[in-house]
Backbone:
């Protein structure tokens, strides 16, 4: 098996950065926006997610305003790494 640096990264549906190294990302939390991956919310962006307690649509709007899916999580996130930018994936 190849190391994670050779694997295609998975894009976060909230912040749109490529923050995960594998396809088994269910329930992982994005370090850039703090969105917890949730298949239901990804399929229906306007539906409130059980894991996140807000819809993906709301989380995306919050990310645009505050740089995080929920304002109260601002202290838990980081800037995207160079390798997480869309042009590097």
Residues:
């Amino acid at each position: 098996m190849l190391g994670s640096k050779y694997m295609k990264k998975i894009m976060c549906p909230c912040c749109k950065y490529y923050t995960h190294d594998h396809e088994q990302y269910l329930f992982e939390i994005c370090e850039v926006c703090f969105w917890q991956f949730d298949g239901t919310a990804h399929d229906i962006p306007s539906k409130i997610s059980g894991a996140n307690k807000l819809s993906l649509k709301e989380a995306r709007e919050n990310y645009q305003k505050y740089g995080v899916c929920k304002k109260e999580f601002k202290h838990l996130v980081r800037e995207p790494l160079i390798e997480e930018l869309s042009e590097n994936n």
